[in-house]
């Protein structure tokens, strides 16, 4: 009987393990700080919710901290913060074993966790209690009873708030300031004004607020501000304009949809909300505590996103997009001995809800006799094009002599990119592609779509691209890789990439490059003399290959 009971118990254990495995499956750890071991110091507490760590010297006071061991979870990388901004910190040196951190004149440091796209996902605050110093009788004595703040001071915990020993009003917001905390904050009951915001303040935190029932004003603004902190009434102000119906809420994530303008500048780094004086840099995600629909303070991850002009292809937006098709559709001529004419047809068709790009022939004729023909891609891109007619397509910068049958790189008259400061995570595109093969094995026919975010010094901050080498249709979501070029876009010979070098992914975005092309390589217009449509002419693409596009949009996490 005893053996039977043991057998039943074993079966139950196996069943529970199997159910747990089936229900949970393998899990990937989110990027975060894993372990932290310090020489001569002890980790007293580590709060995963508020991202705070409290440490103390193991024996005697030390004037430095040596990192014995530090490890990040997932694909994360760790850096020290070079400033005390917990929301948009400046990256310092990489945090590795052996790093030495001074404890002189400070009582804290911050650890930045970057994900595989080099985006800040969390900031940890490491703090400690500095040794008490006894001052002379003529000074403001700092004794044990000084740990209690006066009625005008703010009580700060070394593990839950940032300290400022230079002022008794540390972290107390004025009418135009923002109260910031790296963790859950608790009110000091010795002061009725502790952590009290005025009517125009914003209370931000990287975790949820804790309310102290001993005071109705703790962590609380006036009744008018409380209404403005409600999720349903959230209205952003960008470039001085109040954006209505611009907030999209998905669970605990908020996307602020910012309209594109020809001069975004630092618009996304200067976002305010109606009734709040504080300014947020929403080029990267921030955490904002708002009063939710069920009247609970809730932490939301907030980021601003920009959808550019013409992304739905309902009409051409010359302030953002350009094409060579207008030049293809305009006859050009030059007088040498006789009159040479250059002709082609438009290779962009606007359908009202979509556009179609096709690879078409541009030809040269002398006195009505066909002399040569070349193939040009249909291209639609963010930027400008200076060419005026088919002559510019056939032989860019032609001035005199017999029209050339050599290569004509029409990208020399293109400028690529439009001003842009957002950091999308991917782009989505609905497409239909008709493939026509060509005979040039070095430059085979394929359609191309790419988005590249670029810094002021021509670094490719993020890259996302896809190509099609067979007829297909569907909707594609393409990830933007920050600080990486997994598809070798920069070395592939595509248009608009030759002046770029790969960045780290941490640079500020200054512009965006977008290219759609029916033939990926036919921006270099190639061909030659035609003899009864000689099939040996190696075009850099297939004549008649067509890429139709609709519903292009940038995606933000």
What does it look like?
Strand 22 (348-350) and strand 23 (355-358) form a beta hairpin. This protein starts with a helix and ends with a strand. Residues 1-29 and 132-228 have low confidence and may be disordered. The chain is elongated, with a radius of gyration of 31 Å. With 557 residues, it is mainly β. The strands form 8 sheets. Strands 19, 26, 28, 29, 31, 32, 34, 35 and 36 form a 9-stranded mixed β-sheet that branches. The chain has 4 helices and 38 strands.
Task: Give a short overview.
The chain is built from four helices and 38 strands. With 557 residues, it is mainly beta.
Record keyword descriptors for this entry.
557 residues, mainly beta, 6-stranded mixed β-sheet, 9-stranded mixed β-sheet, 7% helix, disordered N terminus, 38% strand, 4 helices, elongated
- Provide the residue-averaged pLDDT: 77
Gyration radius over CA: 31 Å
Major pleated sheet:
9 strands, mixed
Shape verdict: elongated
Number of helices: 4
Straight-line N-to-C gap: 59 Å
Strand % is 35-45%
How many beta strands in the DSSP annotation?
38
Structural class comes to: mainly beta
Contiguous runs where pLDDT drops below 50 for at least 5 residues? 1-29, 132-228
Please give the share of residues in helix. under 10%
């Amino acid at each position: 009987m005893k053996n039977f009971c043991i057998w039943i118990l074993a079966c139950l254990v196996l069943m529970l393990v199997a159910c747990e495995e089936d229900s949970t499956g393998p899990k990937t750890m989110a990027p975060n700080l894993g372990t932290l071991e310090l020489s001569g110091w002890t980790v007293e507490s580590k709060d995963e919710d508020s991202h705070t760590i409290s440490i103390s010297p193991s024996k005697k006071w030390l004037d430095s901290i040596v990192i014995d061991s530090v490890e990040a979870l997932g694909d994360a990388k760790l850096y020290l913060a070079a400033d005390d901004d917990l929301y948009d910190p400046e990256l310092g040196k990489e945090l590795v074993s052996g790093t030495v951190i001074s404890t002189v004149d400070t009582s804290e440091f911050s650890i930045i966790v970057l994900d595989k796209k080099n985006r800040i996902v969390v900031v940890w605050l490491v703090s400690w209690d500095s040794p008490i110093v006894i001052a002379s009788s003529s000074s403001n004595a700092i004794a044990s009873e000084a740990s209690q703040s006066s009625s005008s001071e703010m009580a700060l915990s070394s593990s839950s708030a940032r300290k400022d020993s230079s002022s008794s009003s540390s972290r107390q917001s004025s009418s135009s300031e923002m109260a910031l905390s790296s963790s859950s904050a608790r009110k000091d009951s010795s002061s009725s004004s502790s952590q009290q915001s005025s009517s125009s303040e914003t209370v931000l935190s990287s975790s949820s607020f804790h309310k102290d029932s001993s005071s109705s004003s703790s962590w609380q603004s006036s009744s008018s501000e409380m209404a403005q902190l409600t999720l349903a009434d959230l209205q952003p102000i960008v470039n001085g304009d109040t954006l209505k119906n611009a907030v999209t809420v998905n669970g605990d994530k908020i996307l602020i949809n910012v309209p594109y303008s020809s001069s975004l500048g630092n618009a996304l780094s200067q976002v305010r909300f109606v009734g709040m004086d504080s300014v947020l840099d929403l080029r990267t995600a921030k955490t904002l505590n708002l009063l939710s629909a069920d009247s609970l303070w809730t932490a939301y991850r907030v980021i601003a996103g920009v959808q550019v002009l013409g992304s739905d292809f309902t009409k051409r937006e010359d302030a953002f997009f350009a094409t060579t098709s207008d030049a293809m559709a305009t006859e050009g001529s030059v007088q040498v001995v006789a009159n040479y004419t250059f002709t082609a047809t438009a290779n962009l068709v606007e359908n009202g809800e979509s556009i179609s790009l096709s690879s078409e022939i541009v030809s040269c004729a002398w006195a009505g006799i066909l002399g040569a023909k070349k193939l040009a891609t249909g291209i639609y891109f963010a930027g400008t094009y200076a060419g005026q007619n088919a002559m510019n397509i056939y032989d860019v910068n032609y001035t005199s002599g017999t029209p050339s049958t050599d290569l004509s790189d029409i990208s020399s008259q293109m400028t690529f990119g439009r001003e842009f400061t957002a950091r999308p995570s991917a782009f989505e595109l609905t497409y239909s592609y008709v493939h026509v093969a060509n005979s040039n094995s070095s430059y085979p026919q394929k359609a191309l779509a790419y988005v590249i975010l670029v810094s002021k010094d021509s670094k490719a901050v993020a890259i996302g691209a896809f190509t099609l080498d067979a007829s297909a249709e569907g909707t594609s979501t393409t990830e933007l890789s920050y600080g990486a070029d997994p598809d070798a876009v920069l070395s592939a010979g595509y248009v608009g990439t030759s002046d770029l070098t790969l960045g780290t992914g941490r640079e500020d975005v200054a512009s965006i490059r977008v290219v759609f092309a029916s033939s990926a390589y036919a921006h270099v217009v190639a061909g030659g003399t035609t003899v009864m449509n000689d099939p040996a002419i190696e075009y850099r693409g297939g004549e008649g290959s067509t890429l139709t596009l609709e519903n292009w949009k940038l995606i933000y996490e």
